[in-house]
Structures are given as C-alpha cells and as structure tokens.
Amino acid sequence: MSKTPWHRNTPRAESITRARTGLTQDIRGRQRRYIVAMMVRTACVVVMAATWNRWPALAVCALVGGVVIPYVAVVAAQAGWRQQGGARPAPAWVREEPATRVVLEPTLILPPERNTAG
Fold first, then answer.
1. Distance, CA of 83 to CA of 85 (rounded, Å)
2. 45 with 77: CB under 8 angstroms?
3. CB atoms within 10 A of CB 86
4. Closest to 50 (Cα-Cα) out of 62, 39, 41
5. How far apart are the first and last CA of the chain?
6. How many helices (H) and strands (E) does the chain have?
C-alpha cells in the first residue's frame, strides 16, 4: 500500500493552455445556476403568499423578487461561455496562395456499343 497522501501540499500546476471549459460542463453549470435561481424564486412566491396579510412590505419585496429573478436567471444562464477564458488570443491570419489552375481537355464520351446480332 502506498504511503503517499492523496492531497499534496504543493500548489496545483498551472495550465499551459488557455482552453475553455468543455461545452458539456458549461451547460451543466448554466443549468445548475438557473435551477438555483428558480428555487429562490419559488421561495419568494411562498414568502409572498405567507406574509401578504401580516407583513405587506415583506410580501411586496418577495413579489418583486419573484418577478425580477426569472429575467436575471435567464440572462445569467445565457452569459456563460462567452465570458470565460479571459483575454482571447489574436487570430493568426494565414496567407494562402491561390490554387494552381488545371486546364482540362474536352473529352467525348460515347455510349457503349450494343451487340444486336445474336
């Protein structure tokens, strides 16, 4: 059995690429953020319903939260992938030379001869 610890005291190595997280991971993160926001919205609606007669100021604040949170959740969920990765490297422009032209000679294609004699 190995005596090395699972977690080392040394810091993690830095990444040598500026690659973004994978699209699958990004979508999963967006879905989680959206679900959490909708759970907070649901809590706002429940608080609003429970406090409408007793504390109307709190109920109105909860109502405003229940109306505003869906918009904020959608904007936050859609703003994920473009904002990651920090500064983007400048695109490397490759100068391509035009393809050489090939002149084709015209060719006459005849149908196959049929042998009608039998």
1. 7
2. no
3. 7
4. 62
5. 87
6. 2, 0
